[in-house]
Amino acid sequence: MTTTNEVLEDLAADIDEVARLVEGLDDAAWSGSTPAPGWSIADQIAHLTFIFTLAKNAAAAPDRFRAMTAAAAQDFDGAVNAALARFNTFPPRELLARFRAEGDASLEALASVPAGQVVPWLVRPLPPAVLASAGMMEVFGHGQDVADALGVRREPTDRLRHLVRFAFLTRDFGYEARGITPPADPFRFVLTAPSGEVWAVGPEDAAQTVSGPAHDFCLLVTRRRHRDDLGLTATGGDAEAWLDIAQAYRGPAGEGRTPGQFAQAVG
Description:
The protein is built from eleven helices and four strands. The chain has a four-stranded mixed beta sheet with strand order 2-1-3-4. Helix 3 runs parallel beside helix 6.
């Protein structure tokens, strides 16, 4: 069983990887567009900085967290845009320093949560390990946007296992975002890790399965690649339809990506 410390250690490595992607950029490059319409590289880092600020306060200062997220309950998109306006006004070097500092502070705060205790989050309280896995999903997706903007291919690692399990827990988010009633029966994901290990999540007798490379799966559930450009296979009508709507985050699905949008191989 994965421990909170294991997830936090892997999240720390992911944060460092994204920081290294941007640390050598000049100011003009920070303003460059990413595949997310209307989002610059600075916007991507600002968003992640805001997410870490939320997580830090959720774990260490719950009352402050509730005050910060009160607006999001009424206007989710407005709250996200307000966060971007708050953080992306900093010069690139300062924004990067804040990204690292808020990331480290969130890791420390989550590590300090007593065993068995949950922390408040946007919809319901979550165990620290699950919240950290959500953070990995955010870093993976927004980090991919930065990498795509820079024309860089990130080398996938077995740290993706946390995102795979998180996507299993959040299978229904794509349905909820579109007002569709989710299937009653669970899916099974059978995915090949970057190391070659096979990860299987879900009941062995599940009629609906998704299989293929774990990296492709993570690109799918963060909507950073179109399903047509990924090596994923579905068994069962529900699983096949899910590949079109999969997302591991709450709220609007966004525009996603179009088939063949990226000339390079996946990643």
